Amino acid sequence: xxxxxxxxxxxxxxxxxxxxxxxxxxxxxxxxxxxxxxxxxxxxxxxxxxxxxxxxxxxxxxxxxxxxxxxxxxxxxxxxxxxxxxxxxxxxxxxxxxxxxxxxxxxxxxxxxxxxxxxxxxxxxxxxxxxxxxxxxxxxxxxxxxxxxxxxxxxxxxxxxxxxxxxxxxxxxxxxxxxxxxxxxxxxxxxxxxxxxxxxxxxxxxxxxxxxxxxxxxxxxxxxxxxxxxxxxxxxxxxxxxxxxxxxxxxxxxxxxxxxxxxxxxxxxxxxxxxxxxxxxxxxxxxxxxxxxxxxxxxxxxxxxxxxxxxxxxxxxxxxxxxxxxxxxxxxxxxxxxxxxxxxxxxxxxxxxxxxxxxxxxxx
Amino acid sequence: xxxxxxxxxxxxxxxxxxxxxxxxxxxxxxxxxxxxxxxxxxxxxxxxxxxxxxxxxxxxxxxxxxxxxxxxxxxxxxxxxxxxxxxxxxxxxxxxxxxxxxxxxxxxxxxxxxxxxxxxxxxxxxxxxxxxxxxxxxxxxxxxxxxxxxxxxxxxxxxxxxxxxxxxxxxxxxxxxxxxxxxxxxxxxxxxxxxxxxxxxxxxxxxxxxxxxxxxxxxxxxxxxxxxxxxxxxxxxxxxxxxxxxxxxxxxxxxxxxxxxxxxxxxxxxxxxxxxxxxxxxxxxxxxxxxxxxxxxxxxxxxxxxxxxxxx
Lengths: 364, 312
Hints:
heterodimer; A: mainly alpha; two-stranded antiparallel sheet; 2 strands; B: alpha+beta; Photosynthetic Reaction Center, Chain H, domain 2; Rieske Iron-sulfur Protein; 2 domains; four-stranded antiparallel sheet; 19 strands; elongated
């Protein structure tokens, strides 16, 4: 015990002198959480975790995957059947995408119900909505890459829906497909969007989301006096970090279990003849799919309303929410319209999704 | 005005020392306490902000006398961290407790620079001008494969011998060779539905008129005669482009075309009976040789529009 710093301490001191590591660490971890840590705050961290895992598994998949119409299917089959643990990496990536969507819904719901989108957090909410759009775009573009029948038809119908946008629809659809019908150009475009454009956009926007979140500080609970909040306030580390880690662990175990229980199985290779396959999108688009079946959404106008106007209108509504709802009241039990609206939207999505699933058996 | 660090602190009767530290509430971001020390070794006292009666640039006036000061708790440093060690949003914006200012000189060359706004705008203009010539080439680069000429080849799909009854949809699968950009030529599977139509159904399809198919130039490439009983429908549902099926529906007592995607239903003449489809099934150019071989041109129309808009 000479009192001399150890080699490790010297290294830490060396880095700290140049990076300001200790200050950075203190700034990162010592953020007061008003009203204390809560399980309700874990969703954002979980999303970050799921995204990082999608990046890791996605990069691993690219070691074997070939984005060409004549090799995409074969290379995906090779990953599933030949590469050691390939089935697991692919299935993890597949279920991870579903987990991402579930978690986005949970995160948005929490922020909405807690009234955390209100002043001064409007920009965080807006960027969050853009991130939501990116997550859906990830799901849509990634779905095509295995190049099986499921992939081909989900893309065919999905792009046709986009085509229904007035004026620019035809251009957008052709631009995305790289031609009048899906083919190699579509696969190339979806691939580059999925692995380059969307990840870059998501990293940038998620960074901005976090930066602005730190700038505004956590909103805290929607009720309780200043004294109560002060008494229960703690730092981000360790209690909230602990809750976040536990939640991430639960998410990880769930995704792994799903990958084991329901590993990805490909259908036939993509081709414009569906054979016996009944095209269907991924489950989180089922409600939209079912909505398009309704008689009131028939015809040219109906498709535009259900496929483009309603989803887009809903996003615009969500974006304008903090500017329409300017009351500082955050308690959800004192915001009946917000509560009923949320319940209606959730019930609507649930009912349409379930009816799409029930409809399946009548088709066979 | 906020009390400043190092300000002299007075009670009603005398000066008691100086402000040694300032404590801020992390939630309200307001100053909650000042810490007063006499500089002579007596314990520093933590005084609530409510005790402060008046503040000037360099003095803080407390309520009460110096003898009452002892009732306030001694300051315990271990219960606090500096504001450098925590992240509290907008804390610095709220704090004006440093006396004086800390400054750095403006470089000599930067003094008296005129036209600063001009230079700012000039920079923006140059950036824009750099980006502008790229916009069009990039757009054209990405648009390259978007519009392809129509394919008017006749494709053999099978023999009419496969059709056993009138007004029954029979699926003919066929291979179509495609050559896309740099890719090697490949065969893709496609299908059309062929019907040997009764006069009534034929009337439903053609409505008494021959059906013309045009090239992108508007030139007629083929005409389906209204009296030829064989009708071929594109395998693509005119709603959103799925593949539809021929189904016997006992409840309806008839056979229909059904699209499993969004449940559009068509009768044998292609008319929409139910569901969201905006138009009838699309007949494609068909000709039957003397030996009964069926040939079609694989035209495709845009799905989801009331009018037929050819895209392939």
